[in-house]
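Protocol step 4 of 6: structure prediction from sequence.
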Amino acid sequence: MCEAVIQAGVALGLPRRDDLNGIDQEGIGYFPTTIKHGRRVSAARAFLTPIKRRPNLTILTDATVTRILFKGTRAVGVACAVNDTLREFRGEREVMLCAGALQSPKILQLSGIGRADHLRSLKIPVICDSPGVGANLRDHFGLRLHYPVLRASGYNPRLRRLRLWMSALQYLISRTGVLSTAASKVGAFVRAIPGASRPDAELSIDIPGTGQIASLSTLQCAVRSLRPESQGSVVIRSADPTAPPAIHANFLSAEYDRQLTVHMVRYARRLLRQATLPKFIGEETFPVPD
């Protein structure tokens, strides 16, 4: 069935790609996976575990950074809550903040770097008035189209009742079967808007179906924008490091994103109406053709 989806993309004019992470991504093919011997390989397992005994490396888990420590305007360390105990760690050379798109601005604002008037309203001493911290949040908005699977059984029956236990046993014994697979098998990078100079959308096709395992298999085609223009924000609501920030995604606030979403859905529908697929999938059940 995955091959039928790929052939549908080829029929639509997409080149088949052996490596969707290659220099030229436009095309369709199987997603690369970070799975080895049936187990997902995280960045920690791949890069930290082999070197964790190095004398110049200390890995500290269950530690929440509460703020960056400064000497004047120079970062000199971090304050952390480690097992409910406050501790400070000083850096002799550098302090690198790598906490992701949501936590990095939160930590910076808690440390006094952000929009000055907002920090003062929370009684946080201002180290640097930087209004851009927490601004310009962009995320890949997407939708999922659902189609019932007709002939191929998909994975869903193997994840229900007795077959679920059989799948679990197969995985424990041999690290094979449905529980050793990735979420989405087939991906495509496409030019959804006519006349686009490069791919502007990603499609990921998943045959298992929904998070709630239904009795009948469903093909899902997720469409996502590659370079959204809608801008949101991440802003702390309290000086308390344990309080979550206010996250405003502001999805579809830009006209480009609204138009792209329409074209992404239309592209996915053209793909899934190609001649290789009617024997496998039925009519769209969500969001439905109307």
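Step 5 (inspection) to follow. The mean pLDDT is 91.
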